[in-house]
Amino acid sequence: IASRHGIPFVVIPAGTRNHFALDLGLDRTDVRGALKAYEDGVDTAIDLAEVNGSVFVNNVSMGVYASIVQSADYRNAKVQTAAAMLPDLLGPEATPLDLQFTLPSGHEAVGPQLLLVSNNPYQLAQLRGGGTRERLDGGTLGIVYVRVESPADAEKLAALEVVGQVQRAAAWSEWTAPQFEVRSGQPVEIGIDGEARILEPPLR
Description:
single chain, alpha+beta, 6-stranded antiparallel sheet, two-stranded antiparallel sheet, 22% strand
């Protein structure tokens, strides 16, 4: 609404992880300091991304993250819920998602365990988050795709996750694009900026 009417707004880091505040360069522990922006704030123009008509500032997740966000336990115990659900969601025995999309190579990808589309690309080192974006005005989407096909893939992914080098895993792919489409034969569970939603495909 603020964007539609050209109204500037102040970002106050009073949420759980405050990804947006972090990427704006704010001190996430200094709520009082953030309030000073009402007196002498500096305007910063950023991109807004959109999926099927809904605006998002951070990201849209499908697969692992979306399943965790959909859990009734997530709001009260985020870290514990994620830790409990990840092995079943990421392991080679996990049911592949009914998602299809086109890779930069032109090949079709199917059945990822994780698909993350972000408003400008994240610098991710671990699946559990904490990544940052170098800029919020690049006019592009960041796309991360994880497909675990064997126990060896799962073990390697887990090992690289521990040391913060998950991008080196063979199961991991990432790229940028100005637009992206996800197809499915059924409604798709997503997390949009951390909120649980279900959208009708295709997701654009």
